Amino acid sequence: xTANPIREITYLEAVxxxxxxxxxxxxxxxxxxxDVGTYGGAFGVSKGMLExxxxxxxxxxxxxxxxxxxxxxxxxxMGMRPIMEIMFMDFLTISMNQLVxxxxxxRFMFGGKCSIPMVIRAPSxxxxxAAAQHSQSLEAWFVNVPGIKVVxxxxxxxxxxxxxxxxxxxxxxxxxxxxxxYRMKGPVPEETYAIPLQSAEIKREGRDLTIISYSIMTPxxxxxAEKLAAEGIEVEVVDPRCLKPLDRDTIIxxxxxxxxxxxxxxxxxxxxxxxxxxxxxxxxxxxxxxxAPIRRLAGRDIPIPYNRTLERCAVPQVEDIxxxxxxxxxxxx
Amino acid sequence: MNATATExxxxxxxxxxxxxxxxxxxxxxxxxxxxxxxxxxxxKAEDLYVRGLVHGTMHLSIGQEAGSVGSIAALQxxxxxxxxHRGHGHTIAKGADLTIMMAEFLGREPGYCRGRGGSMxxxxxxxxxxxxxxxxxxxxxxxxxxxLALQMHRxxxxxxxxxxxxxxxxxxxxxxxxxxxxxxxxxVFICDNNQYGxxxxxxxxxxxxxxxxxxxxxxxxxxxxxxxxxxxxYEAAREAITYARSGQGPxxxxxxxxxxxxxxxxxxxxxxxxxxxxxxxxKCPIRRFKKVLVEGAVMTQEExxxxxxxxxxxxxxxxxxxxxxxxxxPLNMEDEVYxx
Lengths: 333, 340
Fold this sequence. Notes:
The complex is a heterodimer.
Chain A: E1 8-10, H1 11-25, E2 29-33, H2 49-57, E3 58-60, H3 65-77, E4 81-85, H4 92-103, H5 106-109, E5 118-124, H6 139-143, E6 149-151, H7 156-168, E7 172-178, E8 185-187, E9 201-204, E10 209-213, H8 217-230, E11 235-239, E12 242-244, H9 248-258, E13 261-268, H10 273-282, E14 295-299, H11 308-314, H12 318-330
Helix pairs in contact in A: 1-7, 3-4, 8-12
Chain B: H1 17-22, H2 25-50, H3 65-72, E1 80-84, H4 88-93, H5 98-105, E2 129-133, H6 139-152, E3 159-164, H7 171-182, E4 187-193, E5 196-197, E6 200-201, H8 202-205, E7 222-226, H9 230-245, E8 251-256, H10 274-281, H11 285-295, H12 301-323
Parallel strand pairs in B: 1-2, 1-3, 3-4, 4-8, 7-8
Antiparallel strand pairs in B: 5-6
């Protein structure tokens, strides 16, 4: 990333820094959401921003997720660049009409004569004991809606650079922030930088098999890769970072190289984004290089349960990835 | 069987001679011309539909022309509107070019939405028409954002947000009016109340007698007006627009009216009587306005007839021209999905 040693901050701080820096640069950028002011947002992401930017640009709303999404959509239509924070990704269910039928459609439906530059920041995922209605990963719904982009960064560095790009993007961008990533630390430059959305990154190189993972599953895949390396299995971890638009080339190149691919995500497997990734690979020249079937490891087809053990078993953990990758590395040999 | 305008005692009295005297003649003529254009345009569109030239469906506002024209007449040219599936009236009143509009109905490339939107989704962004929404109530939250941007930009512009009586039962209506009230946004919420949400009469869909009673829940002004009296609508809109422009916040205007045609082209009118429809046809807002203008000595009958004929001619010409315009190409359709 950079040659010089740089300070480490958390994912949460990286998200905040991206917002703060863009708000300093562009008066049209503002944050809108529930409890984003004095409270600092449900997870503390916007802590301190009210003091710097005031209540007009750190705009706290009533508990009205449809109107929040509408407020962001309408302001974006008028040339502003709202960052809408939804308290939990699950609550986007209440915003869906505005996001899917308005924000995503208006540009096309009106003949390409307007644009909707907005970011939807959505804390996602399980692992916090919040059970079925506060733990979902709903990216597949949004990927299936033309007009919306979907980003799910896995590191503080990616989070800052891609949020800055998302804010500058002239379209609605769903920006997923896994709650378990918020406390993760990593090197992040202090200066402003933008990472192109459609850019997968090889997080670890390896020759034996490719794991494709995003969001929380990337640190888990990297941990699994470390364990497998001790067994002599060299895993390549590819993080698409942005699900739509998808950097297919980096993924296909990696699969051509290793001949084996395991797709890992937290969302339920049926209809999940892994199916799309599998299809992209199967439809490509990588198909001829496959030495084993494309494998998927994803959340079980259940709502996220409350009990700690049940919750853990509902989505892939490091040991699951290790086992699946180990089996795949041997398959057909 | 259902409530009619005469039963609703709270409807404001007919706009008086004072308003007629005060308004410039050109403005009154403009209003009549727009109302006639809307009527003729929709009749023409219906005719083209029956002849198989218009694809899909359409939602006609015949009988409701006073609501859109009366309220938009009270705007400044750079003010904004956002509206709904029954939006031909608002579009014409906001100054749409009839040929470009008809071209959109016909799905042609030079149409307002380049044939991507059709009758239900016409927008003219540079003209201040920020689009028609096909999902009932869907434009109301978006209106909050548009008005929020106006406020944050310290603009003096005002937004009119139109929706129907059915939309006032949506959750989005509640969230949006509450938020707009809390922030004192420069928006006027206008209910084009034709009394039916598709087939359900408002007496079965809500227990308030008037949609305007709902304003009390948001501590904003609410008024029900005779939506077939263009001057009454104008007067109420002017007051609400002044209120919004001066930073005092939103209002709710309930324009009580009636659609002569069915909900859409598939409607067989099984839920209302022929007699009810006939009664409302006798309350035609255009005929009524013409009468007011002639009896108020603003215009002669001949002058009124000339405006009417001019409107018809403009629509006929637009329909002819629109049919000569090219179809869009299916190549590169993806190009408009995302902005560069």
